[in-house]
Write a structure and sequence with these properties.
The chain has 409 residues and is of the alpha+beta class. It contains 12 helices and 12 strands.
Length: 409
Amino acid sequence: MGIIGVVIVIVGLLISVALHECSHMLPAKKFGVYVPEFAVGFGPRLLAWKKGDTTYSLRAILLGGYVRIVGMFAPAREGIKTTNSKGKPTLAQEAREASMEEIPQGYESRAFYLLHPAKKIVVMLGGPMVNLFLSIVLMTVALVGIGIPRASLTLGDVPQELTSQGTSVQAPAYAAGIRSGDTITAINGTGVQSWDEMRQAIAHSQGEIGVDFLRQGQSYHVQIDPLRTADSVSIGVIAEIEYHAASPATVVSSVWQTFTGTVQVVVRLPLALWDVGQSLIKGTPRDSAGVMSVVGIGRIAADATSSDVTSSSGGWMRSLALLLSILASLNMALFVFNLLPFPPLDGGHIVSALYEWIRRGVARARGRQVPPPADTARLMPLTYTMGALLIAMTVLLVAADIIAPISLQ
């Protein structure tokens, strides 16, 4: 059964990434930029078709996607050093040359670097914003469409036996004739309106407990001798789970908590990764609230749809709500992480466009000629460094999720 959860999360994440890339592509094409390819997945092509100037493809490794936008880097300005001490092109110059080479003849005016900075920001911001939108939609569906789980006074199960101090004993409620589907209405003659009220009434009772309940519209009353331990009083009943639509205020609060929680995770990411490494080296348990890779997320999704979970009262509803929450959190993570102001992330391109826009404004205010597009290729050393760090982070988390996985159970 658990494979269902893994498939749902993989497909949901794939759709989220595809929509992210699509939200870069559509405004780029709208602004006239040449976009030669949009792909879902990586590796060898499985399917491909061309519409207009763009080839759309489905690739074998379904772990993401990408969109090719040509002319990301402007040519080197006059006076800029383009070779290193050995006479070879610098990293920045190699990036500029590769950027120019991918522009077909006749398409030079459709390069990305020629866009106004405001349009560049729209193109690069489109991806993260669609992830934020998806996060809000998925959370709304989970909280309003499915609802918030609440224990009902209608009983989902009344087991025949309970375990007390390692010994199986007959469950008091079952022995008294209470069965699943019955609805408890009063404890010791006092009406109860919620499961918590019922539990409190039982916990504070002395001696036998009088229980009133409804069965198929008929009222019944029984006396139950509860099972008492040093710290609990139990009659042996399990609530049926009901789902109630959340209020708009609850949805807004949940979205905000998810956003702030994600920001906190990203801020402390270096420390969290250090803790993961320490756990692997020392063999100590990982923090249950720590970071994980897509492998760990898949494991949680599998646990959420295991037969043990789905066979219980309201199990499938809980599983679906959890899967939607996982996808909502993943999209929020994509939103926050992609806005970090470092290339090759979207935030790095947005900061560069803002810098270019400010430079233009300052030049106009001083009555000077508008400067050329920002030479973002000079950030290539930082781009490669960030790329290496992202790969290292992925390898570490995947290894940790295989060797020492986090479990929510």
